[in-house]
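Can you make up a protein sequence with its C-alpha cells?

===
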Amino acid sequence: MTDNNSVSIKDLSLNFGSVNVLQTLNLDIKDGEFLVLLGSSGCGKSTLLNCIAGLLDISEGQIFIKGKNVTWEEPKDRGIGMVFQSYALYPQMSVEKNLSFGLKVAKVPQAEIDKRVARAAEILQIQPLLKRKPAELSGGQRQRVAIGRALVRDVDVFLFDEPLSNLDAKLRSELRVEIKRLHQSLKNTMIYVTHDQIEAMTLADRIAIMKSGIIQQLDDPTTIYNAPRNLFVAGFIGSPSMNFLRGELVEVGGKPAFVLNGVTFPLDGYGAGESLTPGRKVVLGVRPEHIKVNEGTIDIYEATVDIEEPMGADNLLWLKLAGQTISVRINGSRRFRPGTPVKLGFDMSLASLFDAGTELRI
C-alpha cells in the first residue's frame, strides 16, 4: 500500500452462504479523496461500505486504513465516522447531547467535547438547534445532526450510506451542496454510497460503478460519462440513458461505417479505427444531447417525432429512426409536434462503440 492511500482494499470477498456478494475487490482510495460507490439496489455498494466500517466480517482479503491493517478491528478502533441512511438519533436527547454522547462514552475531556461540538455546529450551521430534540427538527436538520455526530469524532475517513435518500428533492439538492462544501473545507477522505447518479456525478472525485459485487468502472465522472467501459456503465449513467443502436460495421469508400436496418452512419471522427473491422457486430451508443435536430448540413438522417416531453430548460424528443426509438435532448425553446419529420446529425467524435458480444468498449 502506498503512502498517499487513505483506504486500501485487497482481494476482498464476502459470501453469504453460497451467494457471492462481493467478489475479489481491489480498491485504493487516496488521502482526501471523495469516492462514490454507485449502483442499483443489491449491487453490493452498502455491503462494501459496511465491510470498511467493520460492521460485517469479510470472507477473504484485507482492509487497510491509513496504512494500518484493520481487517479484524472493531468499528470504534478503525478511525472512521459513519453517517447512515436513517438518522439514528437518540430521541430523548437534545442535538447537543446527540453530538457529544459518543465522545463522553469514549471519556474525551469535557473541554475537548465542547470544542468539537461547537466546531461541528458552526460548520453545519446548526448552532440554533443545539437545545432542540430530534422531533422538533426537519428531515434536513436531522441529517445535518447525523453528519455532525460523525464530524465530532475528528477522524480521517467518513463513510456515508445513502444519507440523502430519505429527503425530498429540494432538500437533497441543498444538502448535496453542503456535503461538497464540507469536503472542500475539511479535506478528509469520504466514501459515499448512493444509487443516485446526480449525487455521484456532482460529488465525486472518482466513481466506482458496481454490479453484482464487482466494480465495473472506476474513474472520474467526466471519463465515466464520455468513455464508459462497457454497455452497463453507459446505460447506467445519464438521464435519459445513452441511445443504443445494434448493427454491424461496414466499409464505405475505404472508411469504416455503421449500418442499421439499411441506414449507413459514417464513423468519421471516432477514435478506434484499428478495431473497426467490417462485419463486426457492434452497438453504437450516442447520448441524447449529442444528436442535432434540423441544424443544417450535418443533418443527414431522417426520423419522425414520436413523443415530446417539455422539461423547462430542455425539451426531450423521442424519435423513430431506422426502425428504432431514440431520445434527443434539445433546447427547451424548440418545439416539435408528434408526427413531424426531422433530420438528425450525429457527432461521432462523442459517440461510443461496444462489441455486441463482450459488451466492452471498442
Remarks:
- Residues 5-236 form a domain with the Rossmann fold fold (CATH 3.40.50.300).
- Residues 166 and 257 are 47 Å apart (CA to CA).
